[in-house]
């Protein structure tokens, strides 16, 4: 079991209204990612769910029971912190065993659970070490181990990968996704990295200034962002946003077109422009083009597209993949 | 404790290291030199590159090392010299070599054993009170509360009061059996007031000294407490640790280093408590509150026996080193990162 529902949850720190009012339903077994720019209240929201902060208003319902006033340990949730928060003076074994020990479980049972968790997480050889004798990735796994032995009804992750290097991050991302497949436990995962959000989530919650901008599956958000903020936030490189005459001609205040939905040619096309920067990534090339009468446009071209700074190119947006936004920044449905 | 950047790191001594060295006294000098050098494999790895730097560094350290050495050696040597003389201020010009007789008098004096016991009781008693009290105060002061800044300053204040002054304040204002606050409290509850310095002299001194050292312990414990990662406490909370488990499994181990520092530094000073005894009990009644320092003082300035007092001083130094040796072995490992 692990369904969580937030009902009109708000949080005020002194004068600052960090979270005005949030309603959100998280189903059992879902992998939900909170994503948003720094300072938008992701961590705060997670800590409200965990019970580490008290809500200023509204209700937190866990498994159908009102848990608004329950202590963190009574909520049956486990959290993995950004700093891992391992207990430095305890061995890996004792770190993982700690929640079980606190629950008063008999010793044999604890030993069994700890060695099971260690096996799943490839930590068996490190059980007697202290956290400071481990690498970042290993520490991360210990933190996860400490969370899974409790068999919580949901896991909460607060930017667990942000201290790891890029390669390890990709690895751990896969491991956490795999873990979710195995355990099928609800997971709530906070990140500001939209690649993590897109690759891991069943459901993404895009937050901005303490408000939910949109909730949906990664592809839903990619295909039909509800507003300019989501459009700009989801997708990498960012969607091109064009305002001005061209947008007005399409009956919109702003037009959005993703870099991958713009085709490129050296001979002819809708817009003519000069390449300012060409980023060759091998598999892809991102061209920053200054298009005449439209402004700067990012274009995703094939890997070995041989243009360089100063070249003149012609670009054509795919009209069927264009997003139109009104003057309030809300998406205009395609049918209208 | 292997220095990472030996040019920089090895010269900067942290407080605990300093304490450990002071404590180990003479031995400390040699410990220090050894520890100041990089670890073995580090040394072999960079031997060629740093050989030159190292001898240059030694050369530059030499003046201060020599000065410090002289500073310590001369008084110590004079004390040792006096301790082998029959040297009484009442009989000037009658000094003569006395062999170990000063030592044998001092060591067989029944007052000597009482003084050792009293010295250790003061050290242990004050340490117990200040460590436990310091932790409790630190926990209290760590809570957000109204007027936190002022309360913290007030708690630190006793540390700034001179030992003689605070001992007199305690003697006359609190522990006086007629006019003292404690007597007044006892009387207002209908009890017989305690004559502190007559009936429990050593305990009274322990209380006074503990009161003076409590701020120091509190301060060190408080900084340790504040350096505890907030997320660790929260993790423990989520793991189901109650207040007591959190304290014993998370907070106390985190403070181990601070506690060690407090114990080491305070031991140095507590082995030689003097002013508080002088202005309150004068070591009495009888010798009930005489510690080693006071015994040496009594020997030298009340009986004018410089030779005997010097022998006592040397014995005290040796005892302090024995205490330091065991202490560092016992808890010194807490200081290693
Ligand atoms: N204890 C607090 N007291 C006052 N303001 C706070 C407190 N904690 C957070 N805030 C404020 O609440 C806002 C949201 O903070 P939060 O930590 O939730 O951001 P975040 O989305 O997790 O950002 P990041 O991606 O940088 O971690 C910030 O503006 C922050 O300044
Ligand atoms: Mg955060």
Tell me the fraction of residues in β-strands of chain B, as a range. Answer: under 5%
Cofactors, ions, other ligands: adenosine-5'-triphosphate, magnesium ion
The total beta strand count of chain A reads: 18
How many beta-strand runs of chain B?
A: 2
Largest sheet of chain B at a glance? Answer: 2 strands, antiparallel
Average pLDDT of chain A? 89
The biggest beta sheet of chain A reads: 6 strands, mixed
How big is the Rg of chain B? 24 Å
| Low-confidence segments of chain B | 1-45
Greatest interface = A-B, 23 and 18 residues
| Secondary-structure element string of chain A | EEEHEEEHHHEHEHEEHHEHEEEEEEE
Low-confidence stretches of chain A: none
How far do the termini of chain B sit from each other? 7 Å
Number of helices of chain B: 16
Tally of structural domains of chain A: 2
Number of helices of chain A: 9
Q: Which descriptor suits the 3D outline of chain B? A: flat
Which oligomeric state applies?
Answer: heterodimer
Which class do the helix and strand fractions of chain B yield? mainly alpha
The CATH homologous superfamily of the largest domain in chain A corresponds to P-loop containing nucleotide triphosphate hydrolases
Keywords (chain A): ATP-binding, Nucleotide-binding, Transport
Pfam families (chain A): ABC_tran (PF00005), TOBE_2 (PF08402)
Domain ABC transporter (chain A): 4-234
Subcellular location (chain A): Cell inner membrane
């Amino acid at each position: 079991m692990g369904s969580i529902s937030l009902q009109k949850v708000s949080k005020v720190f002194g004068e600052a209204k960090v979270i005005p009012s949030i309603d959100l339903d998280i189903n059992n077994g879902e992998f939900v990612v909170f994503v948003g720019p720094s300072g938008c209240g992701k961590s705060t929201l997670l800590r409200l769910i965990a019970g580490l902060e008290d809500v200023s208003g509204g209700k937190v319902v866990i498994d159908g029971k009102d848990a608004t006033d329950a202590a963190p340990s009574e909520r049956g949730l486990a959290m993995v912190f950004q700093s891992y928060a391992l207990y430095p003076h305890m061995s890996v074994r004792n770190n993982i065993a700690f929640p079980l020990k606190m629950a008063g479980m008999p010793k044999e049972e604890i030993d069994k659970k700890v060695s099971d968790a260690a096996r799943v997480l490839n930590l068996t050889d490190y059980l007697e070490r202290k956290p400071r004798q481990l690498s970042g990735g290993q520490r991360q796994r210990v933190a996860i181990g400490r969370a899974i032995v409790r068999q919580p009804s949901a896991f909460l992750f607060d930017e667990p990968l942000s201290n790891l290097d890029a390669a390890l991050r990709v690895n751990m991302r896969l491991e956490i996704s795999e873990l979710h497949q195995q355990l099928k436990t609800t997971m709530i995962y906070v990140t500001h990295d939209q690649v993590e959000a897109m690759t891991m989530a069943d459901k993404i919650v895009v937050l901005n200034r303490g408000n939910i901008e949109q909730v949906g599956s990664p592809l839903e958000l990619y295909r039909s962002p509800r507003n300019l903020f989501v459009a700009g936030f989801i997708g990498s490189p960012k969607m091109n946003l064009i305002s001005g005459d061209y947008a007005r001609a399409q009956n919109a205040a702003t037009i959005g077109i993703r870099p991958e939905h713009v085709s490129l040619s050296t001979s002819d096309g809708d817009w003519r422009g000069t390449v300012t920067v060409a980023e060759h990534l091998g598999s892809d090339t991102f061209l920053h083009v200054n298009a005449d009468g439209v402004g700067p446009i990012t274009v995703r071209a094939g890997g070995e597209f041989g243009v360089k700074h100063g070249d003149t190119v012609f670009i054509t947006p795919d009209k069927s993949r264009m997003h139109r936004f009104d003057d309030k920044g809300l998406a205009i449905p395609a049918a209208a | 404790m292997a220095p990472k950047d030996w040019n920089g790191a090895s010269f900067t001594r942290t407080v605990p290291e300093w304490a450990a060295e002071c404590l180990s006294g003479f031995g400390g000098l040699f410990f220090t030199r050894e520890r100041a050098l990089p670890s073995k494999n580090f040394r072999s790895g960079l031997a060629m590159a740093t050989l030159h730097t190292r001898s240059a560094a030694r050369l530059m350290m030499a003046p201060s090392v020599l000065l410090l050495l002289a500073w310590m050696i001369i008084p110590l040597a004079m004390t040792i010299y006096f301790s082998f003389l029959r040297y009484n201020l009442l009989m000037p010009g009658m000094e003569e070599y006395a062999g170990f007789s000063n030592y044998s008098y001092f060591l067989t004096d029944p007052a000597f054993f009482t003084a050792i016991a009293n010295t250790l009781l003061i050290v242990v008693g004050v340490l117990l009170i200040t460590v436990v009290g310091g932790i409790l105060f630190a926990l209290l002061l760590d809570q957000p509360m109204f007027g936190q800044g002022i309360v913290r300053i007030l708690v630190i204040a006793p540390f700034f009061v001179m030992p003689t002054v605070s001992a007199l304040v305690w003697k006359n204002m609190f522990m006086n059996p007629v006019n003292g606050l404690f007597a007044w409290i006892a009387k207002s509850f209908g009890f017989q007031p305690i004559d502190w310095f007559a009936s429990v002299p050593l305990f009274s001194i322990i209380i006074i000294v503990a009161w003076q050292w409590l701020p120091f312990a509190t301060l060190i414990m408080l900084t340790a407490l504040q350096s505890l990662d907030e997320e660790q406490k929260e993790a423990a909370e989520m793991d189901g640790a109650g207040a007591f488990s959190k304290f014993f499994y998370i907070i106390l181990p985190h403070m181990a280093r601070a506690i060690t520092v407090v114990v080491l530094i305070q031991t140095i000073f507590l082995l030689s408590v003097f002013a508080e005894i002088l202005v309150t009990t004068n070591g009495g009644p009888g010798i009930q509150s005489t510690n080693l320092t006071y015994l040496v003082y009594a020997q030298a300035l009340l009986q004018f026996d410089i030779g005997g007092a010097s022998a006592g001083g040397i014995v005290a130094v040796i005892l302090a080193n024995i205490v330091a040796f065991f202490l560092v072995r016992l808890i010194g490992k807490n200081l290693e990162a």
